[in-house]
Design goal:
This protein has 14 helices and 20 strands. It has 481 residues and is an alpha/beta fold. Strands 1, 2, 3, 4, 5, 6, 7, 8, 9 and 20 form a 10-stranded mixed beta sheet that branches. A 4-stranded antiparallel beta sheet has the order 12-13-11-14, covered by helices on one side. Strand 2 and strand 3 form a beta hairpin. It is globular, with a radius of gyration of 23 Å. It starts with a strand and ends with a helix. The chain binds flavin-adenine dinucleotide. The site of flavin-adenine dinucleotide (FAD) has 37 residues, from helix 2, strand 7 and helix 12.
Length: 481
């Protein structure tokens, strides 16, 4: 049995007797860990991009495992109770199409899906679980990734901590789908963290149930100068928010109300971004808490974020209950499991997708997916929502961490500049990057190549055979046929 061993010193080395890795300050020097299991591909993170990555690789015949810190799959969609898949309707391609069909079959989103874009996040946990088990993906839940072993530049082993203690898992190729780029960071990858360390604000979403939508709508209709509620009122009148995916948002100016009563609710967030949607009858999913200048990869900052935003959530609810008609009998039915991190590390890749690429809707020969250019950057000074709403090609090199072998990224930690990341990070783009990374990893393993040496034309051809649109031209072809 292969063994991996830990050294205290913060770097990696290999000896004839075994592999040595550093990372955990508490690890005894030279501790030897038997490698629990070896796979063709290990996906680190069972979230929005990780599960499509695992399924795509398994479909190519690879032996695949997913390592996930929580006891459920779905990533930020599940733990931030995220319903809104922005451009799902027009992005249908490959596995995303199959996922959309499952959503319809389960009755947990609009049918047909392109008529709405909100999916019940609780259902994503079981849909992702089914996708993984249907494709014989081995799951390691409750495993937190804490380190890696490398041979030269190649990651060979990932180290985890769990109830079972410290463990090691080997693979021919890894996919970092951890959102924060944890795996690549442990391997010494170069990364960026927002703009000079300042990332988008975090948010803790929560749900408020037992809202009387009719009462709320009556009141809102009489407040045209106070709230931008037009669409919401219309939706409430049409269906009381009772039909799946008929999301409604209100409005940007609830802060005027806040200002009148703010002194009574000292924990109210200071920002003015107030966003609600509804996918359950008489329940609102609220996205309005906010902290800035905290780092989502720093446990102390995450602790501060939880303390501040949990208080904010309850203050917002109290404000609604005591000031807005329709909320009198309401209760908080759920808060997110953790502070939602919109932006943290982006791992520097062989290529980086930039805001200039987006502005010019660039096409690339080595494009492997497309991304819609609609920015969504919750910066403290300025909330950027622009973008030309067209598409940009995504070159394969963004998934290949510079200076590392045997690993691809997928999802939010993929190589983009700050503003481009604000659109690439979205669920439909993250999901699709997972399918690309999984397909590439499986082809690379089959051919015995490092992912960056995989002929990109072969990857594109395989993706197209799976019904995946690899570039803008592919999508135009689809429109014409
Ligand atoms: C508040 C908020 C609102 C948002 N709103 C929208 C929106 O309206 N529309 C939209 O499209 N997108 C939205 N997003 C963005 C989107 O949800 C995420 O960017 C996307 O889901 C990221 O996918 P991912 O696969 O990269 O990461 P995730 O889905 O977060 O998956 C990462 C997985 O890795 C696991 N993991 C992390 N570290 C470790 C570790 N060390 N060991 C083991 N497992 C680990 C996590 O538990 C998780 O399951 C929002 C994000 C936030 C925070």
């Amino acid at each position: 049995m292969r063994h991996a061993s830990w050294s205290r010193r913060g770097f990696l080395f290999s000896t004839g007797a075994g592999l040595f890795v550093a990372g955990a300050a508490s690890a005894p020097a030279g501790e030897s860990i038997p490698v629990t299991a070896e796979y063709d591909i290990i996906v680190c993170g069972g979230g929005t991009s990780g599960i499509p990555a695992a399924v795509a690789a398994a479909r190519q015949g690879a032996r695949v495992a997913v390592i996930e810190r929580y006891g459920f799959l779905g990533g930020n969609v599940a733990f931030s109770i995220m319903p809104c898949w922005h451009h799902l309707g027009d992005h249908h391609s490959g596995l995303l199409t199959q996922f959309a069909q499952q959503v319809e079959a389960f009755g947990v989103g609009p049918a047909p899906l392109k008529e709405g874009n909100h999916i019940e996040p609780e259902a994503v946990k079981i849909l992702f679980l089914n996708m993984a088990t249907d494709h014989r993906v081995q799951l390691y839940l409750h495993h937190f990734i804490t380190g890696v072993v490398k041979e030269g530049n190649r990651i060979t082993t990932v180290i985890t901590e769990s109830k079972s203690g410290r463990r090691a898992f080997g693979a021919k190729c890894f996919i970092d789908a951890s959102g924060d780029g944890d795996l690549c960071c442990h391997a010494g990858a170069k990364f960026n963290l927002g703009v000079q360390g300042e990332t988008q604000g975090m948010a803790l979403r929560f749900r408020v149930g037992y809202v009387d939508f009719d009462k709320f709508a009556d009141w809102a209709a009489g407040q045209p100068n106070d709230l931008s509620l037009g669409d919401m009122v219309k939706t409430v009148r049409q269906g009381g928010g009772k039909s799946w995916g008929k999301a409604f948002y209100f409005g940007s100016r609830l802060d005027r109300r806040y200002d009148q009563v703010r002194s009574q609710y000292p924990d109210l967030p200071s920002n003015t971004y107030f966003n609600c949607s509804s996918i359950r009858p008489n329940e609102l999913s609220i996205n309005t808490t906010r902290v800035y200048k905290l780092d989502g990869t720093n446990a102390d900052d995450l602790t501060k974020a939880e303390i501040v935003m949990r208080k904010q959530a309850w203050a917002v609810w109290r404000f609604l209950k005591e000031n807005v008609p329709g909320f009198g009998a309401s209760v908080i039915t759920e808060t997110a499991i953790q502070a939602g991190v919109r932006e943290s590390r982006t791992i520097v890749g062989d290529s980086t997708l930039t805001v200039d690429d987006g502005a010019r809707n660039r096409e690339f020969e080595d494009s492997v997916q497309t991304c819609r250019v609609t920015f969504d950057s919750h910066d403290q000074q300025h909330y950027e929502t622009g973008g030309n709403k067209g598409l940009v090609d995504v070159p394969f090199g963004v998934l290949l961490p510079q200076g590392l072998d045997g690993v691809l990224t997928a999802g939010r930690c993929t190589s983009c500049d700050h503003l481009m990341n604000s659109t690439f990070r979205r669920m439909e783009n993250s999901f699709q990057s997972g399918e690309v990374a999984g397909t590439a990893a499986a082809l690379a393993v089959k051919k015995g190549l490092a992912p960056r040496h995989l002929p990109v034309a072969e990857l594109q051809a395989q993706l197209r055979r799976n019904g995946f649109k690899t570039c803008q031209k592919d999508r135009q072809k689809q429109k014409r046929t």
